[in-house]
Design brief:
Layout (H helix, E strand, L loop, with lengths): L3 E2 L9 H5 L5 E3 L11 E3 L9 H5 L6 E2 L12
Antiparallel strand pairs: 1-4, 2-3
């Protein structure tokens, strides 16, 4: 099952982007409610490796399950 970046918790650190082996993490447009950059995971590409969870320094920004209602995506 793919992981989820909680858009409104993400602080745009982006350690997950360079760590992802399948390049499924993408920048979102604009800022989130915290006023920071944010990223989203392409559920169709995510291989559930968990590396993003290991490298993200922001507690609660990435969840080990698919929750589309918590993650905005770029259109």
């Amino acid at each position: 099952m793919p992981h989820t970046i909680v858009t409104d918790v993400c602080e745009g650190v982006a350690d997950c982007v360079s760590a992802c082996p399948v390049a499924c993490i993408h920048p979102g447009p604009g800022k989130n409610i915290k006023g920071t950059d944010w990223y989203w995971i392409d559920f169709a590409t995510c291989i559930d490796c968990g590396i993003c969870l290991q490298v993200c320094p922001v507690e609660g920004a990435i969840l080990p399950a698919e929750h589309p209602e918590l993650q905005k995506i770029a259109d």
